[in-house]
Automatic annotation (TrEMBL):
The gene is Anapc4. InterPro entries: APC4, APC4_C. Keywords: Cell cycle, Cell division, Mitosis, Ubl conjugation pathway. The keyword Membrane does not apply. It comes from the Eukaryota. This is APC4 protein. GO terms for cellular component: anaphase-promoting complex; nuclear periphery. GO terms for biological process: anaphase-promoting complex-dependent catabolic process; cell division; protein K11-linked ubiquitination. It comes from Lanius ludovicianus. Residues 136-234 form the Anaphase-promoting complex subunit 4 C-terminal half WD40 domain. Pfam families: WD40_APC4_C-half.
Length: 234
């Protein structure tokens, strides 16, 4: 160690570990601890060196405010406690707030429909990811829910559109359909079907009547073409 290091440690000990007679009556608390570390201890004991809140603008503001002083909306302050203690208190309050909505929402959710999208072999160790980029859209004018998604591997050139009525007791025509892009962007009918085949990178609703898709040329070559297309839902 250099002399500078030794001086630094000595200054630290001098500042933080001076004798504190006012703490002698507390078991094992004969010296001031390092002021930052005491906040991080995971214990319920009071801080050895609590912060000095005198002159704090927020405390003065609360003290002078008749309405905020006893407001249940303000989280109580524990100046004698560590951050771990405050964290546990806050987690308890948050859990209590979320429990009732969780119970109510959980009891109100039920399965409206079940559709089989694909089957996989039971012998496979890990299930492959076949379902990609689900995007949700709610058409409030027509009271319809939409889900856009793609299926990997065997149908990368298709985008699937699932449509359900917000009233689960009502059904809509063409509840689910697929749009295949394939080679619809070919400049000429003479081009081969394999030369300009496209797959969907991403898809979102632009508005209630229009879907925006990002397409990628599927051929294995450098400089694959990207296309931004807007498709009318009709």
């Amino acid at each position: 160690m250099t002399q500078k290091d030794i001086t630094f440690v000595a200054d630290f000990l001098t500042e933080h570990f001076n004798e504190a007679p006012e703490l002698y009556n507390r078991k094992g608390k004969y010296f001031n601890v390092e002021r930052v570390g005491q906040y991080l201890k995971d214990e319920d004991d009071d801080l050895v060196s609590p912060p000095n809140t005198e002159g704090n603008q927020w405390f003065n503001f609360l003290k002078d405010s008749t309405h905020l002083k006893e407001s249940p909306l303000l989280f109580p302050y524990y100046p004698e406690k560590s951050l771990h203690f405050v964290k546990r208190q806050m987690e308890g309050v948050i859990d209590q707030c979320l429990q009732k909505p969780a119970d109510v929402i959980g009891k109100s959710v039920h399965q409206a429909a079940c559709m089989s999208l694909y089957k996989i072999s039971q012998s496979e160790d890990s299930t492959p990811q076949l379902f990609k980029l689900p995007f949700l859209w709610n058409d409030k004018t027509s009271n319809l829910h939409y889900v856009l998604f793609t299926m990997l591997e065997n149908s990368i050139s298709k985008i699937h559109i699932l449509r359900r009525h917000t009233d689960t007791s009502r059904s809509v025509s063409n509840g689910i359909l697929a749009v295949e892009f394939g080679n619809f962007l070919n400049n000429s009918i003479n081009e081969s079907s394999d030369s300009r085949c496209y797959s969907c990178l991403d898809a979102h609703f632009y508005d209630d009547e229009t879907i925006t898709v990002v397409l990628k040329e599927s051929v294995q070559q450098e400089g694959k073409e990207r296309v931004l297309a807007q498709l009318p839902l009709s």
